[in-house]
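fyi for ur records
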Amino acid sequence: MFRSKALGRMLVAFTYRDFRVQWFGACTSSVGTWVQIAAQNWMVTSLTTLSQSAFFLGLDSFLQQLPIMLFTLVGGVLADRHDRRRTLLGSQYVQMATAVVLAVLVYTGIVTIWHILALSFVTGLAQAFGGPAYQSLVPSLVDKKDLPNAVALNSIQFNIARVLGPLLFAATLSISTTSWGLVEQQGMAVCFALNAVSFLVVIYTLMSLRVKHIPPAQTKSMRDELKSGITYVRQSRELVSLTVLAAATTFLGFAVLTFLPLFTKEVFEGGPGTYSQLLAFSGAGSVVGALFVAWMGKFKRMGLTTLLTQVIYGILIVAFAMSRTLWLSEILLFLTGAALMIVFSTVTSLVQLIAPNEMRGRVMSIYMLAFRGGMPIGSLASGYAATFIGAPAVLEINGVLLVGVAIYFFLRHGVREI
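which gave:
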């Protein structure tokens, strides 16, 4: 009886039909996305020298996230003014097209590092408008009391993909080179083609949603609506604190994933199989962390839990940077994945719970600007620093700073009281 109740509590958002449909489509697309991420990162290291790889991995991440920093606030206004589902569909079409183009370039052997960087920028451009629409759509699919559960389950699908995607990348590369007789680069093209096909599933599921767009009662100019969204966030101490915390976490914490190809080659002397294995351990930990948040649902002292978990996250990153043993590093990646997902899911839930529906698109766009914007700037800065002091030293510094950020917000009012 207890198990059935606990399971029902953990999966309560799945009782909503539209959420189930959206979850399945998003999960399928996320698997394809992680196949491409793994293949693209590995290809960047293949197209550059070992001394250049850290910088170009950071630059690739930066260019994919740059449009989000530039245009996501506009995307938030559009998410409040227009049908969020239609906006999402447009975003999926563009991302599918970039995957197709990359697959063709790689298969024909004419791809260069600059092609990859340019297509990453276009993909980020689509995500800048699709991201706020997606984040704003999820609360429309469930009741408010079940929103933290929906956010956690949504994180689970993304992190299930983080497990399956890299494994599928390694399997696809192995099959295409051994059974189909393709060279490694052509095998990479198959990975990008798989991602393109996965977008067809999410496009179909978005068309199947029954949720209807409710236009705003009053239509101001886009500039006025953007200003009102920024003003609303600035006047909320809780939202400001959560947004800054999210930016600091991604700026310092995501370099561990950016540098995994380098650790695979330099520290563990492995190939694509080892790299996909490391990614899978990180993804599996994130699934466990998201399941924990889904089971907890909406609970007291979510802010305090977030800060304590971030301290643990920073310590784990330092330990991973110092490890030179593969099995130990895999365990540490599993734990860092769990800690990061607890922080991410609780902060995102709190922001969505605080934001009213008529402002949610703009609030989430500001939050995404901070959360997603911290990734590329942090990756670029960490990649540049790694060319001088090495990737392990950079991760050690970032881990210590993450602990410092958590202590700072613990000593301040605004997060630990939520």
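The radius of gyration is 20 Å. thats all i got for now
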